[in-house]
Amino acid sequence: MSFVAGTTQTLRVTREVSPYGYFLSDGESDVLLHYTELVGSKPKIGDEVEAFLFYDSEDRLAATMKKPFLQLDELARLQVADVHPRLGCFLEMGLGRHLLLPLSELPESIDYRPLPGDEVFVVMKHDKIGRLIAKIAYEEELSKLVFPAPASWNNQWVEGWVSKTLQLGSFVIIDGGVVGFGAYGLIPSSERTRPLRLGERVSARVTFIREDGRVNLSMAQRKEIGRVEDADRILAFIKERPGGGMPYSDQTDAEIIKQKFGISKGAFKRAIGKLMREGLVTQKGSWTYLAQGPEAEAAGQSVQQTDNGAASSQSEGAETE
After folding, report:
1. What pLDDT sits at residue 298?
2. Architecture of 8-64 per CATH?
3. 269-303 pLDDT, tens per residue?
4. What distance in Å separates the CA atoms of residue 213 and residue 157, rounded to the nearest whole number?
5. Domain S1 motif spans what residues (predicted)?
6. CATH number for the 150-218 domain, one of 3.30.420.40, 3.40.50.300, 2.40.50.140, 1.10.3720.10?
7. What is the mean pLDDT of the chain?
8. Spatial separation of the C-alpha atoms in residues 175 and 201, rounded to whole Å
9. Which of 144, 24, 25 is nearest to 73 (CA)?
10. Stretch(es) of the chain classified as CATH 2.40.50.140
C-alpha cells in the first residue's frame, strides 16, 4: 500500500513520539498523526485507526482522524473562507484548514469571481507535485447528479448556486431538496439584473422547461408584475431628480438603461408606458418629466440647460445628481 494524499486509509499505530503525536504505518511507511488531529480517546500501540492523509503547511504528508467534506476525486459544494488576489480562493473542507481553489480555476473577470461566504461546486484533485487542490466542477461532473425539473416548476421562483458564470449567462444548480442533488438551469445575460459571481446564491424564476429537463431562468418578475415594480422605481427616481426630470427615455441606449436601472430596455419602455398612460410622466426628446403642469416642465427644462446640453446625451455622465 502507498500513501495517497486525499484518501482515507486504515493504518496501525506503531509508536508514540512526544510532544508530536503517533506514527501510523501501512506496513511499509510511516506518517505522523499529530495530537491535535486526534478524535475521541487516545489510541494505543497496535490499534488500527481510520486516517485521512493530507499535506501540512510545510508540505509534509500527515494524517488526521477528522472527517473532510470530500476526498480525492469526489465532488462537494464548499464555502469560500478567504480570497487571495494572486493565489485564488481558500475553501472550508472540514479539517480546520483550507483547500486552495487556484486562480487559474476562477473566471477572468473579477466581477464574476467568488467572495467569502459564496459556495462553489468543486472536485478534489492533486496539483503537479501531489498536493491537494480544488478544481471547479463543470457540466461533465454535475450532469451525472442532477435530475430533470418537474413541469410544476414552470413560472415558479427557485433558489440555487451559480456553478458557472460567463458573459452569455450564468449556469445554476437549483436546490433539489428531498428530491435529490438539484436541477440544471441557465440565466441568460438578458435575464440577469446584475452580474452574478461564481458560487453566489441566487433566486430566479423558471421561464421555460426544456425537453431534457433543464430550465431557463430569469431574475425578473413576470412582465405584468415587473412592469408595476419597475414603474414605481422609475417614478421614485424621477421625483428625487432636481426639477423632476431625468435624461432617459425611449431613445436611450439599452446598455445605459441596464446599467442605471438593472432592467432591459423593453422592461423600461413598458414601465414608462404605464406611467404615461396614468398621466404621471411625459417625454420630451431624450428626457422624461413628471407630469405636474407647466411649472414642473419649465423647471425640468432649466435643469436640462444647466446640464450643458445633457438633453441630447444618453450617457450616465450627463447626470448631475
Report:
1. 43
2. Beta Barrel (2.40)
3. 989 998 999 999 999 888 999 986 443 444 344 43
4. 16
5. 155-220
6. 2.40.50.140
7. 87
8. 10
9. 144
10. 8-64, 75-137, 150-218
Q: Which CATH class is domain 75-137?
A: mainly beta
What pTM does this model have? 0.71
Q: Do 38 and 65 form a contact (C-beta atoms < 8 A)?
A: yes
- By the 10 Å C-beta count (0-12 exposed, 13-18 middle, 19+ buried), 280 is classed as middle
Residue type, 120: V
Select 223-318's CATH number: 3.90.1150.10, 2.60.120.10, 3.40.50.2300, 1.10.10.10: 1.10.10.10
Residues 206-213: contacts with CB within 8 Å, 24+ apart? Answer: 206/149, 206/153, 206/154, 206/155, 206/156, 206/157, 206/158, 207/155, 208/154, 209/149, 209/151, 209/153, 209/154, 212/148, 213/146, 213/147, 213/148, 213/149, 213/183, 213/184
Residue 291's pLDDT is 86
* DSSP 8-state code for residue 149: P
Percent with pLDDT over 90 in the chain? 69
* Residue 224, SS3 per DSSP: helix
